[in-house]
Design a protein that fits this description.
- By secondary structure, this protein is α+β, with helices and mostly antiparallel strands.
- It has ten helices and 40 strands.
- It is globular and about 70 Å long.
- The strands form eleven sheets. It has a five-stranded mixed beta sheet, with no helix packed on it. A four-stranded antiparallel beta sheet has the order 2-40-39-38, with no helix packed on it. Strands 3-4-5-6 form a four-stranded antiparallel beta sheet, with no helix packed on it.
Length: 693
C-alpha cells in the first residue's frame, strides 16, 4: 500500500475549498445536448479541469464569425463534436467543436410571410434549438417547427405550431422530453389572441396536443370545464376588450419524474388593468405556472404569481427543476424566478407553495402571504395614482430577471441569478396600451436608484443571500456553474468572467470582442475542457436593442462570432467593432416641433424595439436610422405601407402627416448624432445627468 500517496491526497483534500472534490481522470469527450445541460435546466456541469486554481491559465483556443447578422442569445448545444445554434431569420447552423469550422446552415425562413410586427420581431430573435436523436429542431418566426439532420442540415420534417396571420410568432427554443417536442409562442402583449403550448412527436413532427392558457369566446361552448372555471376569473366584459394572450413565449421545463411539462405564462393584455374586465380576479391562466400531463396536455395544477398584473412581471421566464431537502425531506421542486424580483419554490407533483422571498429590493409588494400570494403596495398601482405615475423596482415590463439562464450548484443548493437593475417610472395614459415606461428615469437624491447588473448567489433552502457581485451595465448574459467551483457570465461590455462560486470573487476575465447575452456551455474535447460562448452585437434580443445604452458598448457591437476557451489557449482576441460613423445629413434640419411629434410616434409604434433609442441602431438586420436617411417622404411612406415587409420591416400604414413627423425625427436625430460626433462625443452613449448616476 502506498501510504505516502494516501497522505498526500488527504492533505490536498483538506486544502481544497468547501464543496470541491478531487477530480478523477477526466472523460475524453462529453456533450451538452439539452438547454441547461439537463432536463432540469440547471446550467451546471460537473467538469472541473477548469477550476479556481487553474482558471488563470484559461485562454482563447479559436473564434469564428457566425452566419447571422444578429448575435445569438441561445445556449449552444453540443453533441458528437458539433455545436448547434440559431440566429436571425430562424436560421440554424452547426460548427465543428474542435476547430470552429462551419459545417452547414439551414435557413427555413427566407422572407416574412404575414408582414406582422410579431413575425418581424421573431425574424430577428431566436433563443435556441433542441436536439433529439439525430435531429436539430428550430422554431421559426412564422410559427413552424423545423427538424433537420444533425450531420447534414437537411430538413427532415416541418410542422405548423401557430398561425402567423393571427398575430402569433415564435422566438423561444423548443424543449424535448418523453419523445416529444414542446413549443409555445408569443403575441407581443397584443391581447389579440389566446396563448397556447403544443406537443409534437419528436421523430415525425405529428401534432399531439394543444393547451390554451386562457378561455375562449364566452358565447361559444368551452373546450372543457376547466375553461368555465377560468372564464369566471376574467371579470365583466373582458372578451370585448381582450382575447387574453398569456403567451408561453419562453419558460418550459419537462420533468421526467412526474412526466409533466411545466410552463410559465405571460401576462394579460392590455397591460393597464382598467382596460380589461371589470371586477376581474386571477385572469386564469395568465401570470401563472401551469403543470400539464406531458402525454395528453391535460391540466394538473397551477399557481398565479401576480394576479391583476399591471407591470408585466410574468413568470414566462426562469424555470428550473431540482431535488432539494425542504422541511427535512427531499422534495422534487420547481424553482421559479419570474420578472417580479422573487424566488419561489413549489412542489413539482402538487404545485404546493413551499417558500418565496425577494432577492432584490422591490416597490410593488410588501412580501408574500402564507399562501405565496403577493401583499401589494398600493403606491405601485400607477392606474390608481392621482398623477398616474409611480416609480418601480424591479424594472417595469422587464423585471429584475428575464430569459437569461439561471445556474445551480446542486450540491450546495445555491442558485445563481443574473440580475438587471433598471429603476423605471411607469405612467398611466389614455392612448394605446394605457401606459408608458421611462427606463431612463433616475432620482439624483437617491443613489439606490442607479442602474447596474448583478450576479446573486441565493440559498434555496433558507431563501437568503450568500453573495452578490455588481457589474457596470445592467443587461448581461446567462450563467454557467461548474464542478470546478466557478460561475461564468458574459457581459454587455464584451468580457467573459469567471467568479468564485463560493465567494463571488472574480477569478478570471478575458475580452470576447463583443457583447455576450447567451449562457456559456462547457464540454470535454478529447480530454480538454472547453467553454463555448457566442458574442457580438446583441440584436437578437428586444431588451438589448430597445435599451442599447444598457446592453452593449459601441465597440462590443461586433459581427456575431463563436468562441472556444480552454486551459493554455493562446489565440488572439477577435477584433472589436469599429465605431459607427454618422455621415453629414444631405438635408437640412426640420422643424423641431414636427420632430418632437415624430419622437412620440417613434416611441408609441415601438420603433425603438428594433432601431434603438434616438434612432441609434446596434447593427444587424435592423439598420441605424441615422446613417442612411429615407430618400424622400414618398419612400418612407412606401416603407411604412409595407414595401419591405418581406425583409422583416412590418407595415405601419399612417397618414402623410404622421410619416412627415417620423421623417423629421430621423433627420434631426441624424444631425444631433453628427454634431456630437464632430465634437468627439457619441450621442447615443452620452448619458443624461440622471443616467450618469
Amino acid at each position: 500500500m502506498n501510504v505516502s500517496g494516501i497522505v498526500a491526497r488527504g492533505l490536498a483534500g483538506a486544502l481544497l475549498p468547501a464543496g470541491f472534490a478531487l477530480a478523477a481522470d477526466p472523460p475524453a469527450s462529453t456533450d451538452w445536448p439539452l438547454l441547461g445541460n439537463s432536463p432540469e435546466m440547471q446550467h451546471h456541469s460537473d467538469l472541473d479541469q477548469i477550476n479556481t486554481d487553474t482558471v488563470a491559465r484559461l485562454g482563447l483556443v479559436w473564434s469564428v464569425d457566425l452566419p447571422t447578422l444578429d448575435g445569438p442569445v441561445g445556449n449552444p448545444l453540443i453533441k458528437d463534436g458539433r455545436i448547434f445554434q440559431s440566429g436571425s431569420q430562424s436560421k440554424v447552423f452547426a460548427h465543428d467543436l474542435r476547430t470552429g469550422e462551419l459545417l452547414w446552415t439551414h435557413e427555413p425562413l427566407k422572407s416574412a410571410r404575414s408582414g406582422s410586427i410579431d413575425e418581424a420581431l421573431g425574424m430577428r430573435i431566436n433563443r435556441g434549438v433542441a436536439l433529439y436523436d439525430d435531429l436539430a429542431v428550430v422554431a421559426t418566426a412564422d410559427c413552424r417547427l423545423v427538424a433537420v439532420d444533425q450531420a447534414t442540415g437537411v430538413k427532415r420534417w416541418d410542422a405548423e405550431a401557430c398561425d402567423a396571420a393571427q398575430g402569433y410568432s415564435i422566438t423561444g427554443a423548443p424543449r424535448v422530453g418523453a419523445g416529444k417536442v414542446f413549443i409555445g409562442n408569443a403575441c407581443q402583449d397584443s391581447g389579440s389572441n389566446r396563448g397556447h403550448v403544443n406537443a409534437f412527436d419528436a421523430a415525425t413532427g405529428k401534432h399531439l396536443w394543444r393547451f390554451y392558457t386562457v378561455p375562449g369566446d364566452p358565447d361559444q361552448p368551452p373546450e372543457n370545464e376547466l375553461y368555465l372555471r377560468a372564464m369566471a376569473t376574467w371579470g365583466e366584459g373582458w372578451y370585448e376588450r381582450t382575447k387574453g394572450c398569456g403567451s408561453v413565449w419562453d419558460a418550459m421545463v419537462y420533468d421526467e419524474q412526474t412526466n409533466q411539462l411545466i410552463i410559465g405564462t405571460g401576462g394579460p393584455a392590455p397591460l393597464n388593468p382598467t382596460m380589461r374586465g371589470k371586477g376581474a380576479g386571477d385572469e386564469l391562466f395568465t401570470n401563472a405556472l401551469v403543470a400539464l400531463d406531458a402525454d395528453t396536455g391535460d391540466y394538473r395544477w397551477h399557481f398565479s404569481q401576480v394576479p391583476r398584473d399591471g407591470w408585466n412581471w410574468e413568470p414566462a421566464v426562469g424555470l428550473m427543476l431540482a431535488t432539494l431537502p425542504v422541511f427535512g425531506e427531499d422534495r422534487r421542486v420547481v424553482v421559479s424566478v419570474p420578472k417580479n424580483g422573487f424566488v419561489y419554490l413549489f412542489d413539482a407533483a402538487s404545485g404546493e407553495f413551499l417558500s418565496g422571498k425577494n432577492y432584490v429590493p422591490i416597490t410593488w409588494a410588501k412580501g408574500l402571504d402564507e399562501f405565496g400570494r403577493p401583499i401589494f403596495d398600493p403606491s405601485a398601482r400607477y392606474w390608481e395614482q392621482g398623477d398616474g405615475v409611480t416609480r418601480l423596482v424591479p424594472t417595469g415590463g422587464l423585471g429584475s430577471h428575464g430569459w437569461e439562464a439561471l445556474a445551480l450548484n446542486p450540491q450546495r443548493h445555491l442558485l445563481y441569478i443574473p440580475v438587471m437593475n433598471i429603476p423605471t417610472a411607469m405612467s398611466r395614459n389614455d392612448g394605446g396600451a394605457g401606459f408608458s415606461f421611462d427606463f431612463y428615469y433616475g432620482d439624483p437624491s437617491d443613489p439606490s436608484w442607479r442602474r447596474f447588473g448583478e450576479v446573486v448567489a441565493w440559498d434555496l433552502i433558507t431563501q437568503s443571500e450568500v453573495w452578490r457581485r455588481s457589474s457596470g451595465l445592467p443587461v448581461n448574459g446567462g450563467l454557467l456553474h461548474t464542478g470546478g467551483g466557478l460561475v461564468f457570465q458574459g457581459s454587455a461590455e464584451g468580457y467573459l468572467t469567471a467568479y468564485d462560486a463560493a465567494s463571488g470573487e472574480p477569478r478570471w476575465s478575458a475580452p470576447a470582442g463583443g457583447a455576450i447575452r447567451a449562457a456559456p456551455s462547457t464540454v470535454m474535447v478529447e480530454g480538454r475542457q472547453f467553454v463555448i460562448v457566442p458574442a457580438g452585437r446583441p440584436t437578437g434580443s428586444m431588451t438589448s436593442t430597445g435599451l442599447g445604452h444598457y446592453s452593449s458598448t459601441p465597440r462590443a457591437r461586433s459581427q456575431p462570432r463563436l468562441l472556444a476557451f480552454a486551459l493554455d489557449g493562446e489565440a488572439e482576441t477577435p477584433a472589436w467593432a469599429e465605431p459607427t460613423r454618422i455621415p453629414k445629413p444631405t438635408v437640412a434640419r426640420m422643424d423641431p416641433e414636427l420632430a418632437g411629434a415624430g419622437a412620440l410616434v417613434y416611441e408609441s409604434y415601438g420603433c425603438m424595439i428594433c432601431h434603438g433609442k434616438y434612432a441609434a441602431g446596434l447593427g444587424g438586420t435592423a439598420p441605424d436610422l441615422r446613417v442612411k436617411l429615407p430618400a424622400s417622404l414618398e419612400y418612407l411612406q412606401a416603407v411604412l405601407d409595407g414595401a419591405l415587409k418581406s425583409t422583416g420591416m412590418p407595415a405601419y400604414p399612417v397618414d402623410e402627416r404622421t410619416a412627415e413627423t417620423l421623417l423629421a425625427y430621423q433627420v434631426n436625430a441624424a444631425w444631433d448624432a453628427y454634431e456630437a460626433q464632430q465634437h468627439g462625443n457619441d450621442m447615443e452613449e452620452t448619458p443624461t445627468p440622471e443616467e450618469s448616476r
